[in-house]
Amino acid sequence: MTAQVITVTSGKGGVGKTTAVANLATALAMDGKRVVCIDGDIGLRNLDVVMGLENRIVYDIVDVIEGRCKLKQAMIRDKKYPELYLIPAAQTRDKNAVSPSDMVRICNDLKPDTDFVIIDSPAGIERGFRNAIAAADRVLVITNPEVSAVRDADRVVGILEAEEKGNPYLILNRLNPTLVKNNDMLSAEDVLDLLGIHLIGIVPEDENVIIGSNKGAPVVTDAKSRAGQAFRNIAKRLQGQDVPFMDLDSQSGLWSAIQKLTGRK
Amino acid sequence: MNTMEQVTSIVQIKGIRDGLLATFSDAAWEDQRTALILQIDEKPTFFQGARLAIDVGNQVLKVNDLVELRDQLSERNVALWAVISESPTTEQTSQLLGLATRISKPRPEEQRRFADTISDETALFISKTIRSGTRIEYPGNIVIIGDVNPGAEVIAEGNVVVWGRVRGVIHAGVKGNRNAFICALDLSANQLRIADEVSAMLKPQKDPKPEIAIINEQGKLQAELWNTN
After folding, report:
1. Domain boundary at B86, B110, B134, which?
2. Distance between CA A99 and CA A115 in Å, rounded?
3. Considering CB atoms only, which of A101, A154, A161 is closest to B75?
């Protein structure tokens, strides 16, 4: 097998890059794929926390680059899925400890016996971002339906185009269908209209995402969560399957309960 | 010893106010790039953390050329921030990569001769959407087939024509030409400028129609519907 290297990036911070990486990687592993995620946020690592693997870290990516350990030694196996691994970032170093060619080399070493390599990019468009996209076969740009986040996503798409990184795909995260319906939030159409790139998934706002991140158990493992379903669908699309988009209007659970109570449709 | 002399003779590096400036000659790009990197590798401590601008003269450079150089430099902890060029292609490439194309100390006017030869028939033609953070500057007319997104800037000494939506900043007639115009299929820009007139205006319309913005007889910047008659 030859792995597909996927980088998740956004420009703006806090839109859900790390959450998306943890969830997509877990979803792919649930489908029986062999997955390695790399935390590219050197100095501000947190993919390990979201995946619940923090206390297992012995070596990190900078140790691999600087030759203090073998690549295999820095790969932490997931608690639940034996085919899911994490290469953590170093917390005590900065972005300059890694270069774009280091990332390419590591990904090339991983490719032969992996199905997917998923790289979590830091916020921003500087060195860390360049490292994260250097090895990417495909880039997923993630944004929220907020004007500032979309503006930054547009900037990132422009850089990817200028660097001829292929067409990036868009994940629209934390969409709230009720707010959109009341014209209080950008709709998926508004965002797509501006960015003009291919949409690979819409993830609805869901408090289970935060609960999952804090527990170190990504929300995709929760069969009932709508956000989890959205991430599982994106993972299927990454494997080349044609999955129809979820109908976000047919709300079940909390939202519709509230709407019923307040008498709103 | 010999190599060092050869190297310095094709790429000259000197200190300027904004960092370092490397001046390339007309020799082959690859050779000069290698020469520059060699020069940096010989004195790594001197170049550590430097901001480098390059003056590439008439070289026509593609995205790959500049990206490769920038990555090589960044691996040596040198930041490439500006590319000065006399080739419009290279200037455009640099701008799309988010690099500056002017430095604070402009080169003598007579060296920028191509700017004087711009006539009404000359235009920079760009067939893509101009996204946030991109700045397109040209000493003539600019024609864009695509949108100008919020956060993008398009600056022309002549007119600007956009076959698409305008939501970023457009400045026509930047050197003071009050006869310059801006026209677009949908002119919902957050700011338009012609010469020294500024207009913040134009809410997105439900049913956009082609419009043209000019400075009217009262000296105000105004947008009106495009009239085919």
Report:
1. B110
2. 24
3. A101
